[in-house]
Design a protein that fits this description.
29% helix, 604 residues, alpha+beta, disordered N terminus, 8-stranded mixed sheet, RNA-binding
Length: 604
RNA sequence: GGUGGCGUAGUUCAGUUGGUUAGAAUAUCGGCCUGUCACGCCGAGGGUCGCGAGUUCGAGUCUCGUCGUCACCGCCA
């Protein structure tokens, strides 16, 4: 379904500027109306079915598959050439379109076939290391090593075509809204804040390095000061951090900035873009996006990127459950629970499995307490020794649990327990089928804290980035109680995935200096790192705000995939390697010398 | 940096409590086959069980190390 939409949108079944020398039609194009036409097709041999006196060849290109036929009446040249063919040979086939005597309803070209006059081999193929089919026999590693073969598979092409379609829809929407697409440099300057930079040595400036941008943040702000008013760019960004299924060292952002706007203008504009994309790409209407303050999201879902496709909200039980001599609870900083509807019938085995699940180091809980709310109004819990039926009834009231439901309770240190409950909630959502991939529930999470205390470096860090403006009504607390200050910062969250984030920026050099001061920069360091920006603020900086969307994540969400690798043509593996070109790699002594570099490596 | 899973034929995998000659499917090659479309049938070839050490009469199987890969935690303003 999605594949069809994607293909039809950008590319019809017809190759629009066909070169007659190689083909008159594509392999997805011919129909019953073309019968008796003389045609030339080119493509890859998908499969050969040799029935003895008669042979069928499936010829494939990105538009589809067309069946070629050879029989015992065919010319010797044809039969000789056919003998040489194997999977993935690139051939050119000439013949006439015929109606099939037995039709295949499963493919669009299934009513016709090509009665061949001649075949020529344009390019032979070794036996490929895995089959080029939707359900390939190749594993991930092999597919990545031969990514150019993997890219021939329809399911992979479908994802990249979807990506092209999303990019197209973004550009057409933003161009229509008068945004100007502007490129910003890729070789820039390393900064201490944020993620680790990729660095590039400079030959002409020995001992000095460029950094690759983690985002074009300062450049888009300078474009606002440059009067560009509405900017966007679909741009590669780089972060030298460990990878995940949804994190690559180079990834693509839809980067946007606007002048003379406040937070609401940004939210409205990009809610519009998001709705447009859902509409254009998936033909899905999504309703108004709720706006939820950060603290509410943390309270109700234990996460700043809640999946609001389902309820099962977290409830604080700390006050309710303490004081019954149950040491685990009495000694806990925080006790919280969730209520899973209709799960009172969970078996001992299921409960044991969940208990083991929360005890995994990644979750890190010590154990799982449950309360079954029986249909007859009684309760059965794993802590009946400590709690009476009346006690458990109070728990059920807090969690709004009905007969037939089950309550899960975790306890411990507050942050750890809340995030464990959040994970448990998502896991239960999965188990109960509450996270349907075809349901989309976006929301804005707003009012993020401006700063975050970091125990390791014993200082505040910008939660978003150092250019984010505090809420005006909180500015007075900047020095007295920095942790309390809220920012004009917002995230777009869809189905529990952080799709985008942005903020209203500081556009006043004095306030920007206060921010750098709070973040532990000396005035010299601030001037050294960001003097150009502070200076620019002194020449008439307009109020401005912006946002960046994770393009890869957005496309994988649209494609219904969990990994962004599937929507990137040439992704890197878990260790940041491209196994096809085998990078990163060593460079020659000569190159190092030219760059004035010496390696200091342990034995490898 | 850490936790866990996986690593066996070209490929995807199975391999019981440590015990005879390591299997299946698929791919490849050969033969048969006139309506297939995951064609079918018959046959053949194909193995450094990731690598190294250890335990043992005996290791694909157990232990340790190492490499690769995947998922996650830390990290990712």
């Amino acid at each position: 379904m999605k594949a069809e939409i994607a293909k039809n949108f950008l590319f019809s079944q017809t190759n629009k500027t066909i070169a007659i020398m190689y083909r008159t039609h594509t392999c997805g194009e011919l129909r019953i109306k073309n019968v008796d036409e003389e045609v030339t097709l080119s493509g890859w041999v998908q499969r050969i079915r040799d029935l003895g006196a008669m042979t069928f060849i499936d010829l494939r290109d990105r538009y589809g598959i067309t069946q070629l036929v050879i029989d015992e009446n065919s010319s010797k040249q044809l039969i000789d050439t056919f003998q040489e063919l194997g999977r993935e040979y690139v051939i050119q086939a000439k013949g006439s379109v015929k109606e099939r005597s037995s039709k295949n309803k499963n493919i669009p070209t299934g009513e016709i076939e090509i009665d061949l006059n001649s075949i020529s081999i344009l390019s032979p193929s070794k036996v490929p290391p895995f089959t080029i089919q939707d359900e390939t026999d190749g594993g991930d590693e092999l597919r990545m090593k031969y990514r150019y073969l993997d890219l021939r598979r329809d399911v992979v092409q479908k994802n990249l075509i979807l990506r092209a379609k999303v990019a197209h829809a973004i550009r057409s929407y933003l161009n229509n809204e008068n945004f100007i697409e502007t490129e910003t440099p890729v070789l820039i300057k390393s900064t201490p804040e944020g993620a680790r930079d990729f660095v590039v040595p400079s030959r002409m400036n020995p001992g000095e390095f460029y950094a690759l941008p983690q985002s074009p943040q300062v450049f888009k702000q300078l474009l606002m000061i440059g009067g560009f008013d509405k900017y966007y760019q679909i741009v590669k960004c780089f972060r030298d951090e460990d990878l995940r299924a949804d994190r690559q060292p180079e990834f693509t952002q839809i980067d946007c900035e606007m002048s003379f706007v406040e937070q609401n203008d940004i939210l409205n504009t990009f809610e519009g873009l998001t709705k447009h994309l859902f509409n254009e790409v998936l033909e899905v209407e999504v309703s108004e996006f709720p706006r939820m303050p950060y603290f509410e999201a943390m309270e109700r879902y234990g996460s700043d990127k809640p999946d609001i496709r389902f309820g099962m909200e977290l409830k604080n039980l700390t006050e309710t459950v303490k004081g019954n001599n149950f040491v685990v609870f009495d000694s806990a900083e925080y006790i919280g629970g969730i209520c899973a509807e209709g799960c009172a019938s969970y078996t001992r085995k299921q409960l044991d499995q969940l208990t083991n699940w929360v005890k995994r180091p990644q979750i890190g809980s010590k154990g799982l307490v449950y309360v079954k709310c029986n249909e007859d109004g009684t309760f059965k819990s794993s802590v009946d020794k400590f709690y009476s039926q009346d006690d458990l009834k109070k728990w059920a009231e807090v969690l709004d649990a009905k007969p037939g439901d089950i309550i899960f309770v975790l306890s411990g240190e507050k942050n750890q327990t809340v995030s464990a409950l959040c994970e448990l909630r998502l896991e239960m959502g999965n188990q109960l089928g509450l996270r349907d991939k075809n349901t989309y529930k976006p929301l804005w999470v707003v009012d993020f804290p401006l700063l975050e205390w970091d125990d390791e470096s014993k200082r505040f860090h910008a939660m978003h980035h150092p250019f984010t403006s505090p809420k005006p009504e909180d500015t007075s607390m900047l020095e007295s109680d920095p942790g309390k200050v809220r920012a004009n910062a917002y995230d777009l969250v869809i189905n529990g995935v952080e799709i985008g984030g942005g903020s209203v920026r500081i556009f006043n050099s004095e306030l920007q200096s206060r921010m750098f001061d709070l973040l532990g920069f000396t005035p010299e360091e601030a001037n050294n790192q960001f003097g150009f920006l502070m200076n620019a603020f002194k020449y008439g900086a307009p109020p401005h705000a912006g946002i960046a969307f994770g393009f890869d994540r957005l496309v994988s969400l649209f494609a219904g995939l969990d990994s962004i690798r599937d929507v990137i043509a040439f992704p890197k593996n878990n260790s940041g390697r491209d196994v096809m070109i085998d990078s990163p790699s060593l460079v020659s002594e000569g190159q190092l010398k030219e760059l004035s570099l010496k390696l200091d490596m342990k034995e490898k």
